[in-house]
Specification:
204 residues; 7 helices; 0% strand
Length: 204
C-alpha cells in the first residue's frame, strides 16, 4: 500500500503587497497654504511622502530621499507614475502630465535666469550693480512659485483621486507640526525679504 503525502501549496513570499494608497493625500487648500507660507519648503516633505508611499505601493526598490533632494529632476517621473496608476485603476489618467512637469522645471529656473541676465548686463555695461528694485526682485521669485503651486494643486487633485479621496478630506486639518513649519516659513520669508531689500537698498 503506497503512502500519499499531502503537500500544502507554497505561498509566494517574493510578492510585496501593495498599499491601499500609492500617493500622499492632502487637501488642495492645505497644500496651497503650506507651500505659500513655507516658501516652498513644504514641497520637500510633499515629495518625500509621495515617493515613500509609492515605494511601498509598487514594491520597487527606489530611494525616496535622493528623489526628494533632486525633486525637480524626478518630477516628470512622479507625474508619469500618477498617470500610470490612474490608468491602471481605470480612472482616465492625468492629461498633460509631461507639460505640467516641464512647466515646473522651467518655472524653477526663472529666478536663476533673471539673476544671470542681470549679471550679464551689469558686466557688459561696466557699471556697478545698483539693484533693479525691491518689488521686481520679489516678483521674480514669488510669481514663479505661485504658478508652481497652481500646477501642484492640479497634480494633487489627481493623486487624491488615485487614493480614492478626491477631496483630500483625510488630511485637511493643520497639525501642530504644520504650524511649526509655517512659523519656520514666515521666518524664512522675512530673511529673504531683508536680503533682497539690502541688495536693492529698498528701491521701490
Amino acid at each position: 500500500m503506497s503512502e500519499v503525502f499531502y503537500t500544502p501549496p507554497k505561498a509566494d513570499l517574493t510578492a510585496t503587497p501593495k498599499s491601499s494608497q500609492p500617493f500622499f493625500t492632502v487637501s488642495l487648500d492645505k497644500l496651497t497654504v503650506m507651500l505659500v507660507v513655507t516658501s516652498g519648503l513644504y514641497g520637500l516633505y510633499w515629495c518625500f511622502k509621495h515617493w515613500s508611499l509609492y515605494k511601498v505601493h509598487s514594491g520597487r526598490s527606489l530611494w525616496p530621499l535622493p528623489r526628494t533632494v533632486f525633486g525637480m529632476f524626478y518630477m516628470p517621473s512622479l507625474f508619469y507614475k500618477v498617470d500610470a496608476v490612474l490608468k491602471e485603476e481605470n480612472k482616465g489618467g492625468m492629461p498633460y502630465w509631461a507639460v505640467s512637469a516641464a512647466a515646473m522645471i522651467l518655472l524653477a529656473l526663472v529666478p536663476h535666469t533673471v539673476g544671470f541676465i542681470i549679471g550679464l548686463v551689469t558686466s557688459l555695461s561696466g557699471q556697478p550693480f545698483t539693484g533693479v528694485g525691491f518689488i521686481p526682485m520679489v516678483a521674480a521669485s514669488t510669481i514663479p512659485m505661485l504658478l508652481q503651486c497652481l500646477i501642484l494643486r492640479r497634480v494633487q487633485s489627481f493623486m487624491n483621486l488615485a487614493n480614492g479621496d478626491a477631496q483630500g478630506s483625510q488630511n485637511k486639518d493643520f497639525t501642530p507640526w504644520n504650524c511649526v513649519w509655517m512659523v519656520i516659513g514666515v521666518i524664512y520669508w522675512g530673511v529673504n525679504m531683508m536680503v533682497v531689500a539690502s541688495m536693492n537698498a529698498v528701491s521701490f
